[in-house]
Structures are given as structure tokens and as C-alpha cells.
Design brief:
Helix content: 25-40%
Shape: globular
Number of domains: 2
CATH architecture of the largest domain: Alpha-Beta Complex
Protein name: S-(Hydroxymethyl)mycothiol dehydrogenase
Largest sheet: 7 strands, mixed
GO cellular component, one term: cytosol
Domain Enoyl reductase (ER): 14-363
Order of helices and strands: EEEHEEEHEEEEHHEHEHEHEHEHEHEHE
Number of helices: 11
Strand content: 25-35%
Distance between the termini: 22 Å
EC number: 1.1.1.306
Keywords: Metal-binding, NAD, Oxidoreductase, Zinc
Number of strands: 18
Oligomer: single chain
Structural class: alpha/beta
CATH class of the largest domain: Alpha Beta
Length: 366
């Protein structure tokens, strides 16, 4: 049977979020109803609210989520009632052209729930990243559920569902950071600091963290494993590049990560890497941004430039591993939880995020 729960929606572009009653339908054969325990407030949710991703309002926001499986469709085999899960938006299909050639991290046809969640009047909701979990319960496909250690803090575990995994994977998976290498990360929000922490976990010995905000630079060194930090406020792009190179014998780093996705940070990341170095772009640009560098520099510097989609992660492989590493004290996942808030505090959390006052506000449900 369907059920009514409380959820948070963006009804139209330019308006604040609303706390409303939503309807969770009875799950289809491969669907799962998850009782949400915690959901992080991600910049992607703000982008949905502001109409920067799509125009399919109203949106049911929220996607960085941990919770417990509450009910399942009659064909579900992947999870069972009572399982503690982190939700993911890359539910590998196994059938698309990427999956057929073994490149499952780039699955082009991820699974989603077979039925829409709705407002009480029947208006269909578009779930953020196919999840929609600023709600007491949400409906997803069974493959969107990844089982992890149930002893983990849900507020920490849920952050692997998007931003933290994106940054961590940008360093470990896309950038393939190796022991003894040098890394520079540009932009120290949650994604960038996760890239710093990922580089440290991978064994990089020089990790340069760059941001305009001194508070974030301090956090990178004190809590996330950076060996050096450059507060770039008041510096030109070339001065930042020179500062990174000065920390690496004048050559530049083996790997750079642009965790912002705008022309200035992209350029800094491009020119701060050594010849034949690897650059990763994990910051998401807006629809009008352009990258402009001389073609001869693209050719002449060699190496690679790669975008990181979801940190090139495989949720079934990566989520349980990083939860375990956190619980062993080897990865600082819990350090990304800046505050724990209620469902009525999301609009204020967006404001704090825009000011750079938090890494992640996490909505907790009783």
C-alpha cells in the first residue's frame, strides 16, 4: 500500500524549499522503500532548487543518504528488509554499451524506481539524482542500495552517496594517485577536501591544498592530510601556479584536481602539473562556462586530462570499503559532518554552504 511521509521539495525555480506531505507508492517488483536516517545537504540539491540542472519541477530534493530497507518488491534479491544501506545514483544496469564492454563505472543506463513519488494531489515529483531523500522514506531501485556496516554513523555513511565519493574517487580512481606521488587540489569544499583525504590515503607524499578561504586551507592541513596549503586570496592565477611548482622542485605535481570547475581553477590545475602529469576535473561547471587555453599547450604538456563522473566509483566495491576504513580510523569520513539539522533547516543550510561555513550539514530523521 502507498503511504504518506514528510518530504522537502523545490516547487518552482527561484522559490525556497517547502516541507510537505508526499506519497510513497507501493514498490514495484524491483523497487525498495528505504526509511531514511540521514541525508547530506549537497550543492547539487541547491542546483536543482535553482533550476541549474533541469526544469522538471517540482523536485524532491536529497540524495546523500543512509537508511534502512523498510519494504521490498516481490522480485527484489539485492537487499532485504532491515539492511543498512547507502543510496547511490549509479545503479549499474549490466546491459548498456559501457557495461557490455566491461566499463561498468561509466554505465549509461542506471536503474531508478519504476513508479513516481507524488504530492498528495497526485503531482509527480522528480527525485534529485533519481533518489529524492529529504524525506522520511524514499522509493528507489534495489540496485541503488549498497549494503554497508550497520555499526557506522548514518550521517557519515550517507555522504559517500555523492560529494565525498566524487572527490575521493577523483584522486584514487580517476587520478590513480600512487605512493610517493605529489598532488595539488584546487577548491576545498567537501569534494576538494575528500580529494585531499583520498590522496593521503593513496600514499601521496606531497599534497598541496589551494583555496581562497584560509579556514579551509587550515582544515586541509589539520584534519584531511594536506602537507601544504596555499590561501590564494589576492593572488593571481600565475602566482598560484608558481607557488605550487615551488613546492615540487619547480616542476609541478604528478596529479592535479580541479574541484571547482571554472576557468581560473581549471587553468591553475592544468599548468600546475608536471609535464606528462595527470589532471582531473571533478568540479561541475555551469551551462555557460568555457575553457580557453592555447592548443599548443594542450599538446605540448602531454599527460592526461580527465573528467571524474562520481569519482569513477563502483558503489558495491567502494562504499563498504570506505566505511570500513573510516571505522578503522584510516579515513576521516566523519570529519565532513559539520552539523546535524532537522528537516525544516535545509534552506538555512543552503545559505551556510554558499558562505563556506560548513562542509556538510546533515539532515537527521528520527
Amino acid at each position: 500500500m502507498s503511504e504518506h511521509v514528510t518530504g522537502v521539495i523545490a516547487r518552482e525555480k527561484g522559490s525556497g524549499v517547502e516541507v510537505v506531505d508526499i506519497v510513497i507508492p507501493e514498490p514495484g517488483p524491483h523497487d525498495v522503500v528505504v526509511k531514511v536516517q540521514a541525508t547530506g545537504v549537497c550543492h547539487t540539491d541547491l542546483a536543482y532548487r535553482d533550476g541549474d540542472i533541469a526544469d522538471e519541477f517540482p523536485f524532491l530534493l536529497g540524495h546523500e543518504t543512509a537508511g534502512v530497507v523498510d519494504s521490498v518488491g516481490d522480485a527484489v534479491t539485492h537487499v532485504g528488509v532491515g539492511d543498512f544501506v547507502v543510496l547511490n545514483w549509479r545503479a549499474v544496469c549490466g546491459e548498456c554499451r559501457a557495461c557490455r564492454k566491461g566499463d561498468v563505472k561509466n554505465c549509461f543506463n542506471t536503474h531508478n524506481a519504476s513508479k513516481p513519488m507524488t504530492l498528495v494531489d497526485g503531482t509527480e515529483l522528480t527525485p534529485a539524482l533519481g533518489i529524492g531523500s529529504f524525506a522520511e522514506k524514499t522509493l528507489v531501485h534495489e540496485k541503488q542500495c549498497t549494503k554497508v556496516n550497520p555499526e557506522e554513523d548514518p550521517a557519515a555513511a550517507g555522504l559517500l552517496g555523492c560529494g565525498i565519493m566524487a572527490g575521493l574517487g577523483a584522486a584514487v580512481n580517476t587520478g590513480a594517485v600512487q605512493r610517493g606521488e605529489s598532488v595539488a587540489v584546487f577548491g576545498l569544499g567537501g569534494v576538494g577536501l575528500a580529494a585531499v583525504a583520498g590522496a593521503a590515503l593513496a600514499g601521496a607524499t606531497t599534497i598541496v591544498a589551494v583555496d581562497l578561504d584560509q579556514r579551509k586551507c587550515d582544515a586541509a592541513e589539520e584534519r584531511f592530510g594536506a602537507t601544504h596549503a596555499i590561501c590564494s586570496k589576492g593572488m593571481s592565477e600565475d602566482e598560484v601556479i608558481d607557488a605550487v611548482r615551488a613546492l615540487t622542485g619547480g616542476f609541478g605535481t604528478d596529479v592535479t584536481v580541479d574541484a571547482v570547475g571554472i576557468q581560473p581553477t581549471w587553468r591553475q590545475a592544468f599548468y600546475s602539473r608536471d609535464l606528462a602529469g595527470r589532471m582531473v576535473m571533478v568540479g561541475v561547471p555551469n551551462m555557460t562556462d568555457h575553457i580557453d587555453i592555447p592548443a599548443i599547450d594542450m599538446y605540448g604538456r602531454g599527460g592526461s586530462i580527465k573528467p571524474a563522473w562520481y569519482g569513477d566509483c563502483l558503489p558495491e566495491r567502494d562504499f563498504p570499503a570506505y566505511v570500513d576504513l573510516h571505522m578503522q580510523g584510516r579515513f576521516p569520513l566523519g570529519e565532513f559532518v559539520s552539523e546535524r539539522i532537522g528537516v525544516s533547516d535545509i534552506e538555512q543550510a543552503f545559505d551556510k554552504m554558499k558562505r563556506g561555513d560548513v562542509l556538510r550539514s546533515v539532515v537527521e530523521f528520527s
